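step=encode ok
step=design start
structure_in=
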């Protein structure tokens, strides 16, 4: 009988798929410790981007995203998992402990896992087709399942305030030399295993990114300016603001992105307005009405026609895995 046996090659396959998770500047700030029936997630502070992510929030949200990706990947490969978040108060970088139990995969888990390798961060302007309300409701439901709120920003006044907050944050960050240096180091590469490659960046983000795109190093994607953009703007939020809430925010981000990808929508996370204290406060008070703590802004819509975006690179998986000696 092999019913309770956890196959280590299957765990490695799931970890390799989970590594496709989005992370701030593709920094992949995580590592894994793998035991015979368990996987432990740790944050890697060496991969923190202090000038961009002054509070370390993006780092934890990124780890939440890889945690949810892993749970989906494990479930799809026949490994149900129960998770304890922040299992050890004396070790704050130990973000999660997963216990694994063999169980056949369900259809929903297979569909979400299939979306993992198709998902991309798409910084282009989307088409002018609206995102159907039924799809937005499904995304809200996915976030709620992970304990987070997803708020579509549809009314003119809060939407305008959100766009202002994005521009204000960009202006403040771009005036900071350390921010500009960090952004240059982490973007525009051609052969790195991390960072945002030129192939995934716009040549002119200001003209084509609908006024929301972060200004990275110059990219290779050309897009004509001036066409309308039907992207929905949504804010992902939690009810509190501690590392646990940020981790859950990241899990919800992953759930929303994978569901959006599964139904054919293009997505782009935008953390810039939440990285600057003043603009973050505007999003919390004037966009969300003070009711919740924003963890990320999302653009969701229909990708323009053209060649699909290439996948961004990842670090070799074995660099991120350590075996637990038992
Ligand atoms: C917490 C977080 C914040 C992010 N912030 C931004 C952002 O402000 N602007 C942007 O263009 N992409 C942002 N991204 C997307 C990452 O740059 C992207 O996930 C990474 O480059 C890997 O590419 P991929 O998502 O296509 O796999 C963010 C992702 C995460 C998880």
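sequence_out=
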């Amino acid at each position: 009988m092999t019913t309770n046996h956890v196959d280590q090659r299957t765990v490695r396959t799931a970890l390799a798929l989970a590594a496709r998770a989005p992370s701030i500047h593709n920094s992949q700030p995580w590592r894994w410790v793998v035991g015979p029936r368990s996987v432990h997630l740790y944050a890697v502070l060496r991969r923190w981007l202090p000038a961009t992510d002054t509070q370390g929030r993006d780092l934890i949200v990124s780890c939440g995203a890889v945690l949810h990706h892993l749970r989906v990947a494990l479930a799809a490969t026949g490994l149900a998992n129960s998770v304890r978040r922040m299992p050890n108060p004396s070790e704050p970088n130990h973000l999660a402990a997963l216990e694994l139990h063999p169980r056949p995969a369900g259809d929903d888990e297979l569909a979400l896992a299939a979306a993992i390798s198709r998902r991309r961060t798409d910084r282009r302007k989307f088409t002018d087709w609206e995102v159907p309300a039924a799809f937005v409701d499904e995304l809200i439901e996915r976030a709620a399942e992970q304990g987070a709120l997803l708020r579509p920003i549809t009314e003119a006044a809060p939407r305008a305030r959100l766009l202002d907050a994005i521009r204000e944050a960009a202006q403040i960050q771009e005036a900071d030399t350390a921010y500009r240096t960090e952004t240059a180091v982490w973007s525009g590469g051609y052969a790195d295993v991390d960072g945002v490659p030129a192939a995934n960046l716009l040549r002119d983000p200001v003209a084509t990114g609908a006024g929301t795109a972060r200004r990275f190093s110059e990219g290779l994607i050309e897009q004509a300016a001036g066409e309308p953009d039907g992207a929905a703007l949504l804010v992902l939020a939690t009810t509190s603001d501690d590392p646990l809430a940020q981790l859950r925010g990241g899990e919800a981000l992953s759930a929303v992105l994978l569901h959006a990808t599964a139904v054919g929508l293009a997505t782009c996370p935008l953390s810039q307005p939440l990285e600057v204290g003043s603009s973050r406060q505007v999003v919390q008070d004037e966009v969300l009405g003070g009711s919740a703590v924003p963890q990320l802004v999302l653009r969701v819509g229909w990708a323009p026609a053209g060649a699909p975006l290439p996948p961004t690179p990842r670090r070799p998986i074995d660099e991120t895995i350590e075996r637990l000696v038992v």
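step=design ok
step=annotate ok -> The domain at 8-118+312-323 is CATH 3.40.109.10 (NADH Oxidase).
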